[in-house]
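Minutes, project check-in

Agenda point 3 was the complex the collaborators sent over. CS summarized: two entities, 1022 residues total, and the question is how they sit relative to each other. Sequences were read into the notes so everyone works from the same version.
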Amino acid sequence: MSGSVTDDSGGVLAGLLLPLCVVSGAVVVAGFFFPDVVGGAVDGPVWLVVALTFFGSGLGYLAVLPYPETVSDRETVPTLLRIRHHSLRATLREFIAHHDPVVLGVPVAVFTLFCCLQALFPQGTNATVDGLSQAVLRGGGPVFLGAMFLAVCYCLFLLVGPWGEVRLGGPDADPTYTYPTYFALVFTAGIAAGIVFWGPTEALVHYGTPPPTVDAAPESSAAAGGALTYALFHWGLSAWSAYAVIAVPIAYFVFRHGAPLRVSTILAPFVGVDGLDSPWSRLVDTLAVFATIGGIATSVALVSQQFLAGITFEWGVSTGRTGSVVFVGGLTLVVVLSAVTGVHRGIRRIAGLTVVLFGLFALILVAVGPRSFVFTSGVGALSEYAVRFVPLSLTVGDPWIAAWTVWNWSWWFSWAPFAGLFVAALSRGRRIRTVVFTTVVATSAATMCWFLLLGGTSLWLQRVGGTDLLAAVAGRSDAEAVVGFLVFDALPLGGLLAFLFLALIVVFIVTSADVSTLVTALLATRRGLAPTTGAIVFWGVFQGAVAVSVLLLGGVETLQALAVLTGGPFAVLSLFALGGLTLTFARYEGGHTSLARRAVSRLPAIELHHDVDPPEEK
Amino acid sequence: MNSSQGESEDRALEALFYRAERVALVEREQFSGARPTVWLVGVVALLAFVTGLSNMSEQTLALAGPLAPVVPDAAVFVRFAGVLFAFMLGLVTLGLQRRKRLAWQVAMLALPALALLPLVTLQPTDVPLLLALVVTFPLLVVNREAFDRRVELSPLQVASLAAIVGVGLYGTVGAYGLRDQFLGLEDWADAVYYVVVTIATVGYGDITPTTPEAQWFSLSVIVFGTGAFTVAIGALVAPAIEARMAAAFGSMTASELTLLDDHVVVLGYGDITESVLDRLTGETTFLVVTPDSDVAAALKRDGVNVLTGDPTDEAVLEDARVDVASGVVVASDDDARDVLAVLAVKSLAPDVRVVAAANEEKHVAKFESVGADEVINPLTIGGQLLGASVLGAPDPFTDPGERT
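CS then shared the predicted structure for the full assembly.
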């Protein structure tokens, strides 16, 4: 922690990153345009390093660029955020003084313990966690499915019902983040590289081995429809509702009742806004930090493995374990830069870039892909999704459901604390209806389009296009890492799509990890203080360190299972949060009109204006 | 406890999530003005160059784009179009930077034509160019009003351009008409090739006139063509080079300028400036600012500090370091421009002492009203001196102390 990344050293960093980006970019451009000339001179691993350096330094440079109009005239802001140049001991003391000992200590201790156990008794640890996870997913299946279904219903009610009218931060509050920014931040924070990997893969996997609820022969036309429907179901409305049911209560209590911005604020209806210092609140915050770090660190580790596995598969460039560790290190660096520079700089810019790349990729795929097949199958899958949504949401008991649907729901619920808190923080000045619309409808619309487009394309290749993707990945445990490349190889402009695909993986994981870093730093800092730069750096590095240690010690899947298990408590907590929110709404928020009533009341009002003179104002 | 805690929580929230008044996804005005447009056209030129080079380096080119069957001679087009367009767009970018209307019009035609290239080949390497075009073209349309300056050509330049075009037409049409009397001249393309090779005095000799009539015709093309070519080069290029030379020889360098301090700045060069400079020499350091590059070059030869530039331009005055000068003399032959110069000086450095010479008595009040600290009309002084001299009276301008 030597010095802080304030604006001055931001300039220095920019001065370092820009030449790095330009030089590596020049090599990349030369290789891209003149593959015959340059390609012979440089070999695979070097390419990989140069390309990733280019991309990483570019992202870092984007993050440290200054922001034109920061509100820095308020004296408090810089002093709260800046660390002064102290001796190491003083810095440490300040670091401890700023932190909540429980929320800081427990997760650090648990992760250290986990690493020790993993190093000493890998077999035992794996078996225990595996058994625990199986038991929870099997036994707790109804809870997860019920909580998720309720979340969807509640979001629907907020969307059309009267309480959606409530404006967070008072009737006169103006949103700071413009709608495109808001959407980009929510969308990119809430989803990591999973969307990229599973886009072409999920439907294909269900097509090869249809879920028992679909009742179709493997690789049949009915299986194709059911596969796409399930891809929509696992990544659609339900999944995103989990974020909304954590975000809306937090935002409401923070911006309407002055509660602190933490996950434990969802307990406010039970302990009161003043009672949020209780041990229960601490427990919830600690759990949130654990779930976030666990969830993101395993995602980072998994993504780095899948990323490099895909590259090995496609270009035969093998990097081994060192490659993964270096990759995670680079990611951590970009993540820390992005988180430290703040929401309005790094996080926003990389989120914007992500959305642009996402849209560009989708556009190119529409241009070169099998449009009519994707459209027909997409419409079919969407209608089936609409018709079968309730039965799909409420089917329990099958081991397949436990392994896929319940696992997914738990995974989404374990991400809900940090994603929900982030959404809540950005939502000042917006109506609850807008928050729900953005978090659930807009984001899932984007996700579902993506899954229909990519899933439809891979199904087309499998069924019509004459590429047996399933046979090519048979026997691989990491099908999701390679299916994308097989798909792009069969399409025009495939090389470009593959590059964009890899870029998307990196930006999607960065946009989630920087937000999670910021949120954990916020949760672990004492109430009423903004996290220092040092704290943000610490949590970013800690997150990276956990990822590296599980990569080195093995047990990525074990830690993932452990992190997913934390989804359980948050599924239960979301039920409490919704109950408490309903009671509070009923008590304080009468007199709002629902969307439906407003639509009805509009019609005669327009008629009246024609006949009667408008009433005099004043 | 609650109110203070609530306040500090608000501050924490502000510090983390509400650092700015408004956060837009893209700072629109930063990316959509005329400057970014010029910049993007430059990027398009660069990408066209690299894509063109990439195409030229390929042995065989795949034509996978949707327009491949439509474009005639597609293989030739994609091989050379990129680089040729890049050269043209480079010039266009320069013109756009000077906000020329003509450059905008050429760009509006050239960009869609260049879009044919990626749409014919549609290789991964073409996609960056295509994307850049898709972004640049709408920006160019949106910013059309920013590019409104006319290209101003001197009569000589217009004449020489007209001569080039005229000789080109004469030679091409004539050669095509006489194609039976030439060896190796078959069609219009040959005619154009022959004329260009002839005018440029290269004359490979692969097309040769075989009859006296054709020989005379060729001679006329050589005489008029090379003549027009030479004059055009002189008329179009020489002024630019002269301006550069004058600027280079008649100007102080930036680092020399920064050393100036407590100096006198003389704005404009008129009939009386010579005397002003004589008086100042040896007393203090001074700097003459004049738009006339010939005067600047002459002064520079005499060892005077000169800055070539418009004295009414604040940027030039800033270079002349008016703000740290001890005084400013404004004494050219044009009172109107001098008033503007005084205004410019005062807007930049309100406290500096400005002395102005009014060429006409009626302008004295105007100089004073725009802030000149002292205004002298040299003709009035001269007249009074003459009058005093003929009467034998004492010099009215001699120091009173000297008289006693």
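Noted in discussion: The radius of gyration of chain A is 25 Å.
Follow-up: revisit at the next meeting once the mutant set is ready.
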